[in-house]
């Protein structure tokens, strides 16, 4: 049998192994970067509808509210002043807490019910109660964005510097929810610049604004001199956080003041790699237009091209190739992007990389077997473009011959 025939046979055998291995890997493979937890998970538990929320469901034998107290809280949720007044006349405890340690005032403030809030404050409702997550009514007012409610709570003596269990204060919540008028009130009227502190994740309000992509908030915090180039506990700057979520307008605003577009986080990951990994094509194109460095000074685990291939972002792959990204760059496993695409069984990406002129001989840095192992998957691209076949098999035969000579020596 001629060398090409032997190579084809070896490729076909290895191809079966590849398909089985790829199928197993598909079920086991995790996202390299993990899923980011919601930065305001406590607020996600605030009820959004009338009636009983999940947080109010009685835990067997542990419900704290009496029937009238439960009715009073429901009335506060729905801004039902008539019912609130009737229950108040019956001496209901307006400060009663449910199993989440929330009072009627929590619900009235969280839903911006001005009348209910006014009623409760006039009847001396407590403004300092924190729920099981450390949320106070001042946090909810900042989160919901009602300046009227905020003014009422401050007048009633609410703690303006209170923090929840995540180390977040009113400025964090207002920033995260993009309520510029609340930020202006806290900083310019109440002069609470000391609220500009990192939370438990090491994130100051400026980083939260960038993470959410709030351009107006980023500009306002910059104007108030509350911007920062500091990193959070994960080693990310505002630029990295904005890139992670594909916020192109926010990235553009940040780069107007940022000195180093190529800055790495603690994992030696750049904003380009973050955007590439998450498939944010428009942001990748913008960063490439800003002449971001494709040849980094440190060796990451995966190059931007590897990350785009791993996550099957074909548009991003094409953008990187158009920007002259090194098509034969090796990752820490000594694999080229072609190896990764072939091992994952991605015919479309294999075709793209072959057409872009990747150097098939580059696999000699690993072994001829790697190329032979991927041969079946790569060969599938010939069904789409037979013009690649001759170049591929010529090199494959050459590699196979060199490999056999090396093995016999």
TrEMBL record:
Pfam name, any one = Ank_2
What SUPFAM superfamilies does UniProt report for this protein, alphabetically?
Ankyrin repeat (SSF48403)
Which regions does the record annotate with the repeat ANK?
Answer: 100-132, 133-165, 166-188, 234-266, 300-332, 333-365
Annotated keywords: ANK repeat
The UniProt entry, under InterPro entries, shows: Ankyrin-DD_containing_protein, Ankyrin_rpt, Ankyrin_rpt-contain_sf
The UniProt transmembrane annotation reads none
Protein name in the entry: Uncharacterized protein
* Encoding gene per record: ANKDD1B
